[in-house]
Structure formats: C-alpha cells, structure tokens
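Table S2 (continued). Query chain:
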Amino acid sequence: MLNDLLSVSSAIVQRYLGQILDAALSQHPQIQGTAVDILSFTIKQGLAHPVQSFPVIVALETSPNTALSARASALHSMLHSRHASLLNSRFILSARASFSYQAELAQGRGGSGAVEGVRGGTALLHRWFALVREKRAPKLDFLKALLRAFDVGTSLSAAQEDIDFARYMAENFAAFDYKTQEEVLLVVKSLTNILSTAGMQCVEALSPGHLRAQLQAPTAPPPPSQAEGSDACMPDATATADPAEQGKGSSCGLLLWVVVLAYNGKCRPPKAGVADARKVAPAAHFRPDRVDHASQNAFEEPLWPD
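Corresponding output:
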C-alpha cells in the first residue's frame, strides 16, 4: 500500500514538476511558500531527479528573504551530501538561474533591472561556495566550472544579458571568502588564460589593421627638408603629430626601455673618476702641430670601458 502511494506521488510530482519549480520562483509569497513546501517534500522523499530542482535551489539561496534562503541552503546541503557527483554538470546552469531570479526581483522592485552579485559586501553565491569548500576536489571543480561564465565564443558576439551575467559572476568572484592561496591563484590563472586568448581576439576584431600596422611597421626616416643650415634639422612646431599618437609612441618607447633594462639585468653607470681623469684638454692648450700618435690613441679610447 505504501509503495503504491509513493508511486502515485512520484508520478504526480514528475508530471507537474515544471509548474512547481516555476511557482517556487514566484514573487507572490503565498504561492512561493506552498511551492517551496512541495519542493522540500519532493527532495526529501526523492520523488524526482535532483538535477531538475538544483538550479531552483541555488536561485532561492540568493533570495533577500533570510528564512527562504536558509530553507534553500538546507535543501542544497542535502542534495550535496547525496548527489554531489550529479550536480557538477549543472553548475553554470544553476548560476544562470540565480542571475535570472535576481533580474526578476530587480524588475519587480521597479528598478532599472541592474543585477548585482553582492549584497551588503557578501557574494550572493557565498552559501554555495561555503558548502563546496569543505573538500579540495569539489572546491576546485566548482571554481573551474563557474569560471567558464567568462568564456567568449569564436564569433565574438554576446547579448546584453550575457554581459550582465559575466559582471554578476565577476562581482561574486571578487566577494568570495577565499581561505587559501590556491583558490585565488586558480581564479587569476583562469582569467589570465581567457584574457590572453579571447582578449586578443577582441582587440584584433576591434582594430585589426591599425594595431598590427602600428606594431609591425618599420620606422621611416624623416623626409629631407628644402631649408639649409641648422634650420633644416629643426622640426616644425606646427607639423607635430596628433597628441594621442605622441602618447602612444612615448608609452611604447618607455615600455621598450624597461624591457631592455630588465633583459640586461642592470644599468651600468660610468665609474666615478674615470670621466674626470680622461677629459680632453681645454682648447687654449691644444696645438695641432704637436699632436702625436699616443695622444690620438688617448682621444680615440672610449670613455667608459666595458
């Protein structure tokens, strides 16, 4: 008899599970409370697959209602202890569900619809991170999976919702309560890899010809001037380049100088006393008819030895 009741309950829940999950995210407190009660009974009795209800549980954890958030956190802990290996495939989908839920709440409050990943200095996904942080392997899997939210497709096209979701996840990662250096270094390494690939693709897509020409074009000599004398070597003040281009050139030159110094290891200034001891005699005591080969060699010797 009991088995028959459980079979009937499971069949009913599985048939109307979609409506139950939608009602659990409703903004009406009575409808949401009833749906959460049914969802709690479903999860505790195992009447439906846990992967189906997991995104809704994560979304409810970010609710501003502390009582509702605590109930969702308890259900999340139960699912994590029973089906941790099954939930790994729904990490990004669950994070997206929490973002959509927060967007609906923001629109319901009559705001601009901007979604923030931090509330009161605490990440909205901090309960989820605190739950998976107990063991090293689930923690690293969690960070690696959620960092895929920053991946950029090969088409380099994204909707405004994708950009808002990436910002939402960035605010969560910035506010997570990290405990070890491994967690921080993993996030930094993953973001650096994404930036080195997708970032360069975006730069080339935005300015494919100008950037490459600026980096690879050889330096051309200045055109000869028609003027004679010392004025021919003086640049015209009115013919200067654009200030933005001058700033780019000076920045590139400074960067090149820093790279050269780092490559050489150190800058070797002239030794004290060497330049003073080898100064050329004043012009008043210099007689061209009395210059010998030894003095010529002295003048031709470099001032600073290697």
